[in-house]
Design goal:
There is one protein chain. Helices cover about 65% and strands about 0% of the residues. It is built from 31 helices and no strands. Helix 1 crosses helix 2 and helix 14 packs antiparallel against helix 15.
């Protein structure tokens, strides 16, 4: 039934309003007014709606309505409600583009690369893409990202421009850009490898993209760009395995085989399932892992491989471009810092219980002297913890500073902590803030929360609660547990945002589910005091008890200020 609002809209269209004409066209073409059950009547009505909608769309476009022109061009381009006609599509795209439509500008760029109506001309295409991208159209930004990543005809690859446009699209939530950035920065072939930034974008894309989830699991497995967490890696691989991804099943089995306390039955189940579904290497891995299992080979049978396989590197989770061991040794002995660093890693990160810190330090030392920032970071940790060397705070800080100056994000974060707390070095909040920012600017997720903390309390920088809120929001959405806690606190107290206890509880519970002690204690306080929720003694005691079970060591952010509020019954 046609209502009065629709009649009024049609009247405005008939009186010549381009806005009304376009709005009416969209309703008739894309939404329709029919709601009956009579098929023939509905078909006739729909035909009339399409005819009238097309009329009004043409009228609005002819009057210079930019959105109508773009819409009409797209319908000609794709053959929707209008016969496909690329000549007319280009004509209307051109009109809309000249009126400033970023979408139309993008499509003109596409037509110059499609070898259809317009002659192929990548340089003109880029001009149109850039006009569109500068107005914020994410698909034009993504097109430029792809062109500058790989190059095109006379256009050379340009990493700086590729990253600029890729990040612009990714920041708008374009999952294709987030995934592509994450993969390319992870692989380090097209773009310079940056596991920290890769983890940043893959975290965002993983919510909706399985491939991003896979790559993110790899990073967690290696502790590459994120804190090493084999349980998190297993969780991510398991989510894909349950969807039938056989490669994820095999990788999950490998991760579990290196995880203390993991179920051998689960490992066996995933390898059997992957093998049954056709994964080429699942059976080999199964036979290697369970060579003595009679249920697999029978009481009198032997492992069909009958040999010790020296390495399953081709099957294992990878992502780092590692040199073959012989080549790595030769280059390390010849003085190559990267090879020396990789050799040191092999001795330190052995997954077979063969860790040799003495050998690791032996190779980290020359790499660090050669200016290798990651080697300086690892060597600093060895001196801090006394791994392969006698503990030495002076040398640990020396190499930590060299690594931070060399741009290593983890070193910058740790050195920032030292300046923040005045441990080993003199307390200097401004220097701490500078280091936190440099680390966060390099996509170190953990540094984000510390940067927000500085803005929240005016530590080393002018206090800015709104900026702190924005930073905590980003960290929380990326799955950083301390960021979820801090964001929950902002909503709970109304700091930098309007107080909203429902949202506060959502974020605090997410952090509490990951055993964040301060989040547990804050939830206990909220339920004990009935702060925005109904008072519930048993819930409060439950949260307090869970916090107590995790130990009462002061939490890094706010526990000192809150400790007096909580009482474990």
């Amino acid at each position: 039934m046609i209502d009065e609002a629709f009649i009024s809209l049609r009247k405005k269209a008939e009186d010549g309003s381009a806005d009304a004409q376009y709005e009416l066209a969209v309703i008739l073409l894309d939404e329709g007014m029919g709601d009956g059950d009579d098929y023939e009547l509905e078909s006739s009505r729909r035909s009339k709606e399409l005819h009238e909608g097309s009329h009004w769309l043409l009228q609005a476009a002819t009057q210079g309505h930019r959105d109508a022109q773009t819409d009409l061009a797209k319908r000609y381009y794709f053959g929707i409600d209008f016969p496909e006609n690329l000549v007319k599509a280009h004509e209307w795209f051109q009109k809309a583009a000249e009126s400033g439509s970023p979408e139309a500008q993008f499509y003109i760029g596409e037509m110059y690369t499609g070898d259809q109506v317009l002659p192929y001309d990548i340089e003109t295409a880029i001009e149109w893409y850039e006009r569109s991208a500068q107005l914020g159209f994410q698909w034009a930004q993504l097109a430029l990202f792809d062109i500058y990543c790989h190059g095109a005809d006379l256009i050379e690859a340009d990493e700086e421009k590729a990253l600029h446009w890729g990040r612009k699209a990714a920041e708008q939530g374009n999952v294709s850009a987030q995934l592509s950035l994450g993969k390319l920065l992870f692989e380090g072939t097209v773009l310079s490898r940056n596991s920290y930034e890769a983890a940043f974008w893959l975290h965002l894309a993983a919510d909706v993209d399985d491939e991003a989830t896979y790559y993110l699991a790899v990073l967690y497995y290696h502790g590459d760009g994120v804190n090493r967490d084999t349980n998190k890696a297993a969780e991510l691989f398991r989510s894909l395995a349950r969807k039938g991804d056989t490669e994820a099943m095999v990788q999950l089995a490998i991760v579990l085989s290196h995880t203390p306390g993991a179920s051998r039955e689960e490992i066996k189940t995933w390898l059997l399932t992957a093998g049954d579904l056709g994964h080429v290497h699942a059976r080999e891995l199964l036979e290697e892992q369970f060579a003595d299992d009679e249920s697999l080979f029978g009481a009198s049978s032997k492992n069909p491989l009958q040999r010790i396989i020296p390495s399953y590197d081709e099957f294992q989770v990878s992502g780092k471009e590692l040199l073959p061991i012989e080549q790595c040794i030769a280059r390390a002995e010849a003085g190559d810092p990267e090879a020396q660093f990789q050799l040191g890693q092999m001795f330190e990160d052995s997954q077979e219980g063969l860790t040799d810190y003495l050998q690791a330090v032996k190779w980290y030392q020359p790499a660090a002297v050669g200016g290798h920032a990651a080697a300086q970071w690892r060597l600093s940790l060895c001196y801090q913890k006394g791994l392969g060397v006698c503990p030495d705070d002076v040398l640990a800080t020396h190499y930590l500073k060299l690594s931070a100056e060399g741009g290593h994000p983890e070193a910058q974060l740790q050195l920032g902590w030292q300046y923040f707390y005045g441990s080993v070095v003199d307390q200097d909040y401004m220097e701490a803030f500078r280091l936190f920012k440099k680390s966060a600017d390099q996509w170190n997720l953990n540094a984000l929360v510390w940067l927000g903390h500085c803005y929240q309390y005016g530590t080393g920088v002018d206090a800015d609660l709104e900026k702190a809120f924005d930073i905590y929001s980003k960290a929380a959405e990326l799955g950083i547990v301390s960021g979820q806690f801090k964001l929950g606190m902002m909503y709970s107290r109304g700091w930098g945002v309007r107080q909203h206890m429902k949202t506060a509880l959502q974020w605090l519970k997410l952090a509490a589910d990951n055993e964040h002690k301060s989040a547990l204690m804050e939830l206990g306080r909220i339920y004990l005091e009935g702060d925005g929720v109904e008072h519930c003694q048993w819930r409060a005691e439950l949260y307090f008890r869970r916090a107590a079970e995790l130990g009462d060591e002061p939490c890094k952010f706010e526990v000192e200020r809150q400790r007096a509020w909580y009482y474990i019954r």
